[in-house]
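As promised in the previous annual report, we have extended the structural survey to additional targets. Below is the entry for Transposase.
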Amino acid sequence: MNKKVTYSPEVRERAVRMVLTSEHEHPSRWATLVSISSKIGCTPETLRTWVSKMKVDSGKKPGVPSDAAAKIKDLERENRELKQANEILKKAAAFFAQAELDRKPRK
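The corresponding structure token record, generated without further manual editing, is:
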């Protein structure tokens, strides 16, 4: 079973800085990622993801920044919850309307 290891933001920032500053010392970006990831204790793919996110967040690469993605996720969750509440209210209104029609009139 794989366990999820979380790294602090400081470790992530330092690792990304190391990749960007030592790229010229290696023959390729991947070689840089492999070298630094072994020092940090993560996989090269994880480090590549961190570098990519940092570039998007700083505006150097097109994409949705992390803060905007988090806000979109929160809004989608809220929208889903509101739709569920709306469905519950519609069913309750239909139930009570039917109960009102089935009720015997008073004399």
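The chain has a mean pLDDT of 90. The two ends are 71 Å apart (CA to CA). These points will be discussed at the next consortium meeting with the crystallography subgroup.
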